[in-house]
Each structure stands twice: as C-alpha cells, then as structure tokens.
Design brief:
The chain has 191 residues and is an alpha/beta fold. The chain is 46% helix and 14% strand. The termini are far apart. InterPro entries: Ester_Hydrolysis_Enzymes, SGNH_hydro, SGNH_hydro_sf.
Length: 191
C-alpha cells in the first residue's frame, strides 16, 4: 500500500491534435503523464481507442475532444452523444479513476453557437458520471465568440500563448480533481 502512495499519479490526456501537441511531461513533471491525443481525431475515433485508455490504468483522465466533429459538419447531437458514451464507458470500466471533462474550445467565430450548445449539454451531463467539468471558453474566447487571435494562428490549434492560457485553467482544475473522491464502484446504467 505504501508503494502505491509513493508513485506519481498517472494522468491520461485524451483527445485530438490540441492534446497531442501538449508538453504534458514538461508541464506536469510530478505526474506520470500519458499523451493519448491523436491529430485529427473525432469523437468516433476516441471511442474506438477506449481500450488504450483502459490499458493505461490512469488515476486521472483529462478529456478534450469534439472540435473536429464540428469542423467535419457533424451535428452537436452526434458530438454530445459520443462524449456521453465515452464517459459512461470509462466510468463503468475505470470506477476508481477521476475524470475531468473540458469544454470544447472556441475556434473560428462561425462555430461559436454550435460549440456553446454542445458545451451546455456536456456541462449538464458530467455530474451524472461523477466527472468534473472545466469550462475553458471564458479564458480563450474573444468578443465575437471565436478563439482570440493571439491564442491561435489558424483559428483552431493553439499557439504557445494559447497553451499558457489553457494551462492557467487546467492546472488548478487537475489539482481540484485530485481532491475529489473517485467512484468506489461501477455505476449501473439502467435502460
């Protein structure tokens, strides 16, 4: 038991290129970080990779996904349903893992309405699977609902300044997550 207490917490960062490009080991040197971000991934792709998450046996999962679905003109309902399925399956198979669901980040202003609609549903759903929710929208969005220009050169991917603005929100959220009790048993899905 003492050995387990001495090992660093394993955090899986799960998502698309925004996650894949993160320097997680450098940003969280006291944690055992696993980068499961894959460039171009949509929610369907992340669902197909769920076994990789389970095999990593994480203490914590930080999930950021959904923007590529919207970029490929998939519906808000599709994005929300897939993220809900992913969270339910992760909770079922990893009951002792703490989960942090992050809001879909702002991108080009033309996506603002869809992103905000999806985020409202995700915020409402997260507590049902005992996941914490981090709303990164206020830190990254400009007045027009698009990502602020200094945070993205292509209105999607983050600049170094964009990563810093995200980390200002993410670091304390992961600290708070660590203080939350994990689920002690799998949830039962009735239906």
């Amino acid at each position: 038991m003492d050995e387990d207490m001495d090992r660093p917490r394993r955090i899986v960062f799960l998502g698309d290129s925004i996650t894949a490009s993160g320097d997680w080991a450098g940003w969280f040197p006291d944690a055992d970080t696993v980068n499961l971000g894959v460039s171009g991934n949509k929610t369907d792709d992340v669902l197909e990779r769920i076994d990789d998450v389970i095999a990593a046996a994480p203490d914590d999962i930080s999930l950021l996904v959904g923007t590529n679905d919207l970029g490929h003109r998939l519906s808000v309902e599709h994005v929300v349903r897939n993220i809900q399925l992913l969270l339910v399956e992760l909770r079922r198979t990893l009951p002792g893992t703490r989960m942090l669901l992050q809001s879909i980040m702002p991108r080009g202003a033309e996506f603002a309405e869809q992103v905000q609609e999806a985020n409202i549903h995700l915020w409402q759903f997260a507590p049902t699977v005992h996941a914490q929710y981090l709303d990164v929208w206020p830190a990254l969005a400009g007045d027009d609902g698009g990502i602020r220009p200094e945070f993205s050169g292509d209105r999607l991917h983050l600049t170094p300044e964009g990563y810093e603005a995200w980390l200002v929100e993410l670091r304390p959220a992961l600290e708070r997550l660590r203080d939350e009790p994990p689920m002690s048993r799998p949830i039962q899905i009735i239906g």
